[in-house]
Hints:
Chain A is mainly beta. Helix content of chain A is about 0%, strand content about 60%. In chain B, a hairpin with a 2-residue loop joins strand 5 (about 40-50) and strand 6 (about 55).
Amino acid sequence: EDQVTQSPEALRLQEGESSSLNCSYTVSGLRGLFWYRQDPGKGPEFLFTLYSAGEEKEKERLKATLTKKESFLHITAPKPEDSATYLCAVRSSTLGRLYFGRGTQLTVWP
Amino acid sequence: NAGVTQTPKFQVLKTGQSMTLQCAQDMNHEYMSWYRQDPGMGLRLIHYSVGAGITDQGEVPNGYNVSRSTTEDFPLRLLSAAPSQTSVYFCASSFRDSPLHFGNGTRLTVT
């Protein structure tokens, strides 16, 4: 069964305190792993796509990495404006469906 | 470009009422989908469409209908609202295998 698990469910960081979010997955044929950011009252906003193990993508203070079983979203020296829920999703080769994890709610306090 | 536009933003229904959630996109995406988001459950796929005239069921289709008569529009119909359908509904679109673009959601309460 295709499945996506994110951890931790919630993370509180002090401004400048780097950390990582985890997304582990089991899918029948990976056709892409996606990271999204969701602010309260808004729809998810696309951040990164990763397709193969060893691939990395960066954007400002965020860096996403991918292995055969999991992905990490590394946050370096976070700022309060990085506070949001981060969602991970994988596209399976079975019908091309997108499966979402439950998200990690990140709070960065000054 | 407006992207993905959902209306209404908020809706309150009584049990048994029907309604249609509207979704429109102006990016010429062939793929459109509807998700519901509930606390602790993540986003779950209700229905999706790979092009005009083609729709299919997702994980949680019961109680919902869709149609796709144009590339731009993908309305979601609640046939007879139930309290279990209280949720936030998101419409999304994309080109095939590309990242989804989401609307800002419709917050539905069924009493």
